Amino acid sequence: MCGIVGYEGTREACDILIEALSRLEYRGYDSAGIALLGQGTIHIERRKGKVEELRKIVSGAALKGSIGLAHTRWATHGVPSERNAHPHRAGDVVVVHNGIIENYLALKQRLKRAGHVFMSDTDTEVIPHLIADYAEKGRNFTDSVRLALKDLKGSWAIGVLKESERTLVAAKNQSPLIVGIGDGEYFIASDIPAIINRTDRFIFLEDNDMAIFRGRDMRLTNVDGEEVVREVRQVRWTTAMAEKGGYSHFMLKEIFEQSRAISDTLLGRAREEEGEVEFEGVDLPDLAGIRKIWMVACGTSHHACMIGRHMIETNLRIPVETDLASEFRYRDPIVSPGDLFISVSQSGETADTIAAMRDARSRGARTLSICNVLGSTLAREADSVVFTHAGPEIGVASTKAFTTQIAVMFLLMLFIGRKLGTFGCRDVRERLREIRAIPRKVQSVLDTTRSIEAAAERYMSFRNFLFLGRGINFPTALEGALKLKEISYIHAEAYAAGEMKHGPIALIDESMPVVCVSPADRTYKKTCGNMEEVMARKGNIILISDDETHEMAARAAQVIVVPRTIYELQPILSMVPLQLFAYHIANLLGTDVDQPRNLAKSVTVE
Ligand code: F6R
After folding, report:
1. Model pTM score
2. Quick one: CA dihedral 445, 448, 450, 456, positive or negative?
3. Per-residue pLDDT averaged across 256-273, rounded?
4. pLDDT tens figures, 330-340
């Protein structure tokens, strides 16, 4: 999704902004632009395509200025083009925007009637015109911004620059925006990795906040002009964490970080000796009398929820309902007061997941968020939050966030089990021993990357894949198919293995490889039956199993063996080779692995 960066300080802003913008490239975008305020007027440059194109232009132009804004656009209203790229300008007001202005057509008509001329097809362009309109009517700059914001319906994070007053304003509603505090300088950004090399001190703006930067001072108000106070928080992510560190892609680096990420996620929480799980500093909701748990998310995080449901229902016998956030919010769900609503999100900024959590809370649910980003909206708004300690995830395809989410769900399941008396210390101790061994086992799968690359070479030219799994392995199959399709653009779909004969079996022939996730668990025999059905139709099987002596191994076209663990944690180990398989195929095909076409890292609009 769109990315915003801004700078107000004493240094030349151009290079700082372009560099910060390139750190936001992972969010997905189609055009980029920059506005710089030097001694005189604001200079704007915009380009369709990559930040690199913009960099070439501005480096040649030797743009000067110590205040500025820059933007990467992910098209919503109007095609990707230079004309629609941000910043947009009206008079001496310049705006960059992330989000969607839902009432832009009505506003545009009103402004056109007042003589405003529009140059783009975007919803964003109404914002500078509205601000300029209020300014023409005699309002000062900050009042004009406030009044304009009150006219808007929808979601926005904006940066506004006014030439004549040398003032920068940042404001947000339902789209993330942070302020980075440097030494005599300020940064604004859509998220932390953009400016992590500049500062480790951040203010996470809240909805309806406005930060006003003028002459090295910052003032925080709400849209009514009242002063607000926001905590300055220190973030311990390092610059190296947001860089590739010698890997060819962020995605590959992040796949290889999973052993470390899972260890960090367990740190201080898995108290093996005591047979307890602790979430220090987390005020978890009261679990007494809990009758139902909801687990709601989008995409990969939703697949993690499906795995969480298996863990909790099997072990704790508490009913769990999972849903896609985009469905949950529009189906008038039957949430009862006291239900526990768990939202799961890497970014903590996914618009549908945030809306679903707000909806559940309004129906009386207690809310808990599993999230990777400190200060994000879900982390701030949930009654409690348990962080995955995956570190920044830059590759658009989620990998380490997924496996650390499963690790947190497992810990949470043990924690709830202890609280409700379902588990004794011994039960917890035994299970913690298993999860403690997971980082080492993940590493041993990672060490087989060469052989998975060789398998990728064999299969890279197929255009369709089917993924099958049963029980807790079905979400793994779904996630394996999602990884492959999103980065390689190969059509891949996943089915619960038992569903295959209800339709997809019609597709099977030698041109359709079938990836079967079949560990030696309670689903083993049944999945073997499905594999027989595939082979009877000349289908090629790629088998992922923890069982070296799997009864289908000799007849499968490809076997990938992973280490064994308990039922609840096997999806972590089955998933790692599927991530590598998708990565290597995409890399061999030469797609843009870290920024696949049409995709955005953080889906901050509906
Ligand atoms: C797929 C992927 C997406 C995200 C989804 C939710 O690889 O990354 O499907 O999982 O957009 O994002 P978060 O977890 O940030 O809420």
Report:
1. 0.86
2. negative
3. 94
4. 999 999 998 99
Q: For residues 301 and 321, give the distance between their C-alpha atoms in angstroms, rounded to a whole number.
A: 14
- Catalytic pick from 48, 172, 483, 601? 601
The pLDDT of residue 28 is above 80: no
d(CA 544, CA 523): 14
pLDDT at 346 over 90: yes
Topology match between the domains 2-241 and 246-436: no
pLDDT tens digits for 114-154?
999 999 999 999 999 999 999 999 999 999 999 999 999 99
CA of 303 to the centre of ligand 1 (A): 10
Peptide bond into 87 cis (omega under 30): yes
Question: How confident is the model over 528-538, as pLDDT tens digits?
Answer: 999 999 999 99
Q: How far apart are CA 233 and CA 205, in angstroms?
A: 11
Task: Please give the distance, rounded to the nearest whole angstrom, from the Cα atom of residue 301 to the centre of ligand 1.
Answer: 6
Q: Are 31 and 81 in contact (CB under 8 A)?
A: yes
Q: How far is the CA of 117 from the centre of ligand 1 (A)?
A: 38
pLDDT single digits (tens) 98-107: 999 999 999 9
Q: Which of 74, 190, 249, 300 to mutate to test the pocket of ligand 1 (most atoms within 8 A of CB)?
A: 300
564-573 pLDDT per residue, tens: 999 999 999 9
CA dihedral 388, 394, 398, 403 (to 10 degrees): -30
Index of the ligand 1 atom closest to the CA of residue 600: 11
> Does residue 601 have an active-site annotation?
yes
Distance 300 CA to ligand 1 centre (A): 5
Cα three-residue angle 39-44-46, rounded to 5 degrees? 160
Instruction: State the pLDDT at residue 468.
Output: 97
How does the average pLDDT of the chain come out, rounded?
Answer: 93
Per-domain boundaries in the chain: 2-241, 246-436, 449-589
pLDDT above 90: percentage of residues in the chain:
83
* CATH label, 246-436, candidates 3.40.50.10490, 3.30.450.80, 3.40.190.10, 3.40.50.300: 3.40.50.10490
pLDDT at 262: 96
**Superfamily classification of domain 2-241:** Aminohydrolase, N-terminal nucleophile (Ntn) domain (3.60.20.10)
Q: Is 298 a catalytic residue?
A: no
Structure tokens at 523: 């689903």
Q: Which residue's CA lies nearest to atom 11 of ligand 1?
A: 299
- Those residues whose C-beta lies under 8 Å from the C-beta of residue 280, and which sit 6 or more positions away, are 268, 269
Looking from the CA of residue 401, the nearest atom of ligand 1 is: 14
Pocket test for ligand 1, best of 296, 398, 597 (most atoms within 8 A of CB): 398
Q: How confident is the model at residue 58 (pLDDT cuts 50, 70, 90)?
A: confident
Nearest alpha carbon, ligand 1 atom 4: 299
In the reported structure, the alpha carbon of residue 108 is separated from the centroid of ligand 1 by a whole-number distance in angstroms of: 33
Q: From ligand 1's centre to the CA of 479, what distance in Å?
A: 11
Question: Which of 293, 290, 268 has its CA nearest to residue 279?
Answer: 268
Give the residues surrounding ligand 1 with Cβ less than 6 Å away: 297-301, 345-347, 350, 353, 397-398, 482, 486, 602-603
Say what the pLDDT of residue 577 is.
Answer: 98
